[in-house]
TrEMBL record:
Catalytic activity entry: adenosine 3',5'-bisphosphate + H2O = AMP + phosphate
Gene3D superfamilies: 3.40.190.80, Fructose-1,6-Bisphosphatase, subunit A, domain 1
UniProt-recorded name of the protein: 3'(2'),5-bisphosphonucleoside 3'(2')-phosphohydrolase
Organism superkingdom: Bacteria
Native source organism of the sequence: Saccharopolyspora rosea
Keyword Ribosomal protein: no
Key words, A-Z: Hydrolase, Magnesium, Metal-binding
Gene Ontology MF term list: 3'(2'),5'-bisphosphate nucleotidase activity
Amino acid sequence: MGEDDHELAARLARQAGDRLLGLHSGRTSEVDPRVLGDAGDNASHELLLAELARTRPRDSVLSEHGVAGPPRESCPRVWVVDPLDGTREFTEPGRTDWAVHVALVEDHAVTASAVALPARAAVLDTGAPPRLPSRPAGRPRIAVSRSRPPAFVDEVAGALDAETVPMGSAGAKIAAVVLGEVDAYLHAGGQYEWDSAAPVGVARAAGLHASRLDGSELTYDRADPWLPDLLVCRPELADALLTAVSRTTVETRSEVSR
Ligand SMILES: Nc1ncnc2c1ncn2[C@@H]1O[C@H](COP(=O)(O)O)[C@@H](OP(=O)(O)O)[C@H]1O
């Protein structure tokens, strides 16, 4: 029997990650970060699209950098991929908070996915999700964007006496929750389906809570891929975090600001 969808997602995320690491090893200090970031986005995107066309020719693909395969509207299986999440961090020497996302979406839900963290030599996938470690004693830790931390998070952190942990890449932040390095990831103000589909699939498979900030379902493969806010956290913190978010006075959503 050939690879199942979980195995395929994991293999493609790993291979794309290896290709990205290869670009790092050929780097010289003179390389313009924007050129390196674009080279990474393109190389990973091309690898993922070529392999998906070869192994799943009847499926549709929605990538941050383009679409492929049959039209999404008529296709029951859609791969939602982010070839390089955390492009900025990828270009900064020594950082490990960047990722490759590969997710299969059926009926608006993620049914198989993988997140590669190439600089940590790790791939998390829905076929063999990691076991959530028990939470260490101490204040809760909330991962937030290092470049665009949402203003309301300080209010939420205050309500839970939590500390915030700035980090790049939605995939790296959700992986940090899955691996027990932080307890939650909060985001608002803008994102697209490819930023969260694969890591949310892995988080759910590992038993974590994942939702919009109002507690509603995260749904994928919609006509408009804009998906501006989310909460991923340990299940025991979900009620407290959703309540704290609902009580914030700072604007939590900016659906019009893309
Ligand atoms: N306000 C916003 N609008 C659109 N995309 C956003 C955004 N804030 C974060 N993102 C995207 O979400 C991903 C993680 O962001 P962050 O590191 O700030 O947490 C990044 O994806 P890419 O690196 O694939 O572009 C970033 O572009």
